[in-house]
Design a protein that fits this description.
By secondary structure, the chain is an alpha+beta fold. Helices cover about 55% and strands about 10% of the residues. Strands 3-4-5-2-1-8-9 form a seven-stranded mixed sheet. Strands 6-7 form a two-stranded antiparallel sheet. A two-stranded parallel sheet has the order 10-11. The site of cytidine-5'-triphosphate has 11 residues, from strand 2 and helix 8.
C-alpha cells in the first residue's frame, strides 16, 4: 500500500500545504481521494479539511494558482468552497462536528477537531486523512482502522452503525454502492443496521437514492448490489416491481425460471458488453411485466404473453418514481423492452426478408443496443443450449446485416413524405395522407416496392385512387 507521502505526491498538495502554513491552519486531504489513491483508482475530486475557515483557505490557494476570486465557488451556509485546478476539483471545508435531527437531513453544523470530522464520516475507508502541512507532511491518520478494512475489503461504519446511518440514511445506499463498486463485503454489524434502519431512507430524496442505484448499476457486477439490497430488505422499499420477479411457481410439475435471478444474470451479462446506463436499465426492466402476465397453459406450460408490451408501458411509471429523465433515454429503454423478444423469435423460425426488414425498421438506430440486450438475455444452466442459441443468433445478425446493406432501412426515411403525397394529390393534411403513408411503408417492408420514387410511384397513385383521390402531378414533374 502507498504511504501518506505517496498519496500526496501531486504538486497541488504542496501549494495547499504552503497556503495552510501561511494561514497557520492544520490541513488534511480526506475521504474519497485517500481511499481511491490507496486502491489505485482514479479520483479527480480532492477534499481538504482544515481546522479553521475552509473558505479562507480556498481563497489563499486560488491566489497561489493565480486564479481570480470568481473562480472560487463559496457556499457560505455549508462553510465550504470549491475550486478547479486543471481537471482537479478541490473542495475545502473547516473541520466540523455535525449533529443531525432525527426527522430531517439538515445538520446543525459546529466547528470541531479533525477527530470530530473523522467521526462524522460514513465509513472507515472514507475517514482516512493525510496531513499536508510542512512539518507533518504525509502523516496518515487512521483512527478507525480504515487501512485494515481496505486490505480486508470491508465496508464498516466508524461509529456504531445505527448512529452513522440515522445521521444520514443515504449512507445505507452508499454502503451497498461502495461494496458493489469495490467488490467489498459489508461488516456484519454494519449490514444488520441496514435492515434495522432501512425505513429511514424515506427522508431521502429519490434523486439521491437513484444516483446511488445508478452507480450500482454502472459497476462491473451490478447483481451483487441488487442481492445486497435484497438481503437487507431495502430493495422492496425502493423497487417493489423488481421484487415481484422473485419466485417460481410450479404447476403439473413444471416450474418457470426465477425471473429475479434471471434478470440479474442478464444485467451482469450486458454489463460485460456496455457501460451505457440505459442499455443496462433495459436489461433490468426487460421482463418487468412477467409477473402480471404469467399464466399456466395446459400442454404448453408457462406463458408470459405480451409481457414485452406491458413492460414497455410500465417504464415511464418506474422512471418517474426513480426521478430518472423522461426523455429520449426513457424512450430508448421502452423500445428495447418492447422489442426484446423479436430477434430471438426470428432465430427460432424461418427467417423471411420481410421480418428482417421490419425489425430493422422498428429498431432503427437502436439495433446494436437491441442485439446486445438479446444476447445478454440468453441464459441457461445448460451451456450447450446457450451456445446453440448464440449460434442461431449469429445467423440472424448476419442476415440483418445483409438486408440492411441492400435496403439501408436503418435510416429509413420514406421518400414519399406527407408533403409529397399532399402535393401529388393536391390536398391538405388529413387522414388520407396517413393511410397512404402507412400503405407505402408496409409495401416497402414487405419488399413489394423499394424506397424510391420510380419504384413506388404506381403503388402510391393506386392507393390514392382507392381513397377517391386524383393525382395532379406526374412522376416526371415530381423528380424534375
Ligand atoms: N461522506 C459522508 N457521508 C455521506 C457522503 C459523504 O460521510 N453521505 C464523506 C465521506 O468521507 C466521503 C466524503 O464525504 O469520502 C466525500 O463524499 P463524496 O464525494 O460523496 O464521496 P466519495 O467518497 O468521494 O466517493 P464518490 O466520489 O465515489 O461518490
Amino acid at each position: 500500500m502507498k504511504s501518506g507521502i505517496e498519496i500526496i505526491e501531486n504538486p497541488i498538495f504542496k501549494i495547499i500545504g504552503e497556503a495552510s502554513d501561511f494561514l497557520g491552519l492544520e490541513s488534511y486531504v480526506v475521504g474519497g481521494f485517500v481511499r481511491d489513491s490507496l486502491l489505485a483508482r482514479e479520483c479527480k475530486d480532492i477534499d481538504i479539511v482544515c481546522l479553521g475557515s475552509g473558505i479562507g483557505l480556498a481563497e489563499e490557494v486560488a491566489k497561489r494558482f493565480n486564479l481570480s476570486e470568481q473562480s472560487v465557488s463559496i457556499f457560505k451556509n455549508f462553510g465550504t468552497a470549491m475550486l478547479k485546478v486543471d481537471d482537479w476539483d478541490l473542495e475545502f471545508v473547516g473541520a466540523r462536528k455535525e449533529s443531525y435531527q432525527r426527522d430531517s437531513r439538515k445538520p446543525l453544523v459546529l466547528e470541531g477537531s479533525l477527530e470530530d470530522d473523522q467521526n462524522r464520516r460514513d465509513f472507515t475507508i472514507n475517514a482516512l486523512a493525510v496531513s499536508v502541512n510542512n512539518d507533518t507532511w504525509g502523516t496518515l491518520l487512521d483512527p478507525f482502522g480504515g487501512i485494515d478494512d481496505l486490505q480486508a475489503k470491508i465496508i464498516r461504519t466508524p461509529l456504531e452503525p445505527g448512529i452513522t446511518f440515522s445521521d444520514d440514511p443515504l449512507r445505507m445506499m452508499r454502503a451497498v454502492r461502495f461494496a458493489t463498486q469495490l467488490g467489498f463485503d459489508i461488516f456484519p454489524e454494519t449490514f444488520e443496521a441496514l435492515t434495522t434502519e432501512k425505513d429511514r431512507l424515506s427522508i431521502i430524496s429519490m434523486e439521491r437514492i437513484s444516483e446511488e442505484l445508478n452507480k450500482i448499476i454502472l459497476s462491473d457486477r451490478p447483481s451483487y448490489g441488487f442481492l445486497l439490497l435484497d438481503a437487507c430488505q431495502i430493495l422492496p422499499i425502493i423497487f417493489p416491481e423488481f421484487m415481484k420477479l422473485k419466485g417460481v411457481d410450479t404447476e403439473e410439475g413444471k416450474g418457470h425460471k426465477d425471473n429475479f435471478y434471471h434478470t440479474l444474470q442478464v444485467l451482469d451479462n450486458i454489463s460485460k458488453n456496455t457501460n451505457d446506463l440505459w442499455w443496462r436499465w433495459a436489461a433490468i426492466l426487460h421482463d418487468i411485466a412477467k409477473p402480471q402476465t404469467k399464466k399456466f397453459v395446459q400442454q404448453k406450460g408457462w406463458t408470459f404473453h405480451g409481457h414485452e408490451e406491458i413492460g414497455a408501458r410500465q417504464v415511464p411509471t418506474i422512471f418517474k418514481r426513480f426521478k430518472l429523465p423522461l426523455n429520449e433515454k426513457m424512450k430508448l429503454v421502452q423500445k428495447l423492452v418492447r422489442l426484446h423478444l423479436r430477434p430471438i423469435a426470428l432465430s427460432k423460425e424461418e427467417i423471411t426478408d420481410s421480418a428482417l426488414r421490419r425489425l430493422l425498421f422498428e429498431a432503427g438506430d437502436e439495433l446494436e443496443a437491441l442485439m446486445t440486450l438479446c444476447r445478454a438475455d440468453i441464459t441457461s444452466k445448460n451451456g450447450d443450449k446457450v451456445k446453440k442459441y448464440l449460434r442461431n443468433f449469429d445467423t440472424v445478425e448476419g442476415k440483418l446485416r445483409e438486408v440492411e446493406a441492400s435496403d439501408s432501412l436503418r435510416s429509413f426515411q420514406p421518400v414519399f413524405s406527407g408533403e409529397v403525397i399532399m402535393d401529388v394529390f393536391d390536398m391538405g393534411p388529413g387522414k388520407e395522407v396517413g393511410l397512404i403513408k402507412i400503405a407505402i411503408r408496409e409495401a416497402i417492408l414487405d419488399g413489394l416496392i423499394r424506397n424510391d420514387f420510380a419504384s413506388g410511384w404506381d403503388f402510391m397513385i393506386s392507393e390514392g385512387l382507392k381513397l377517391g383521390l386524383k393525382p395532379v402531378k406526374s412522376l416526371d414533374q415530381m423528380i424534375s
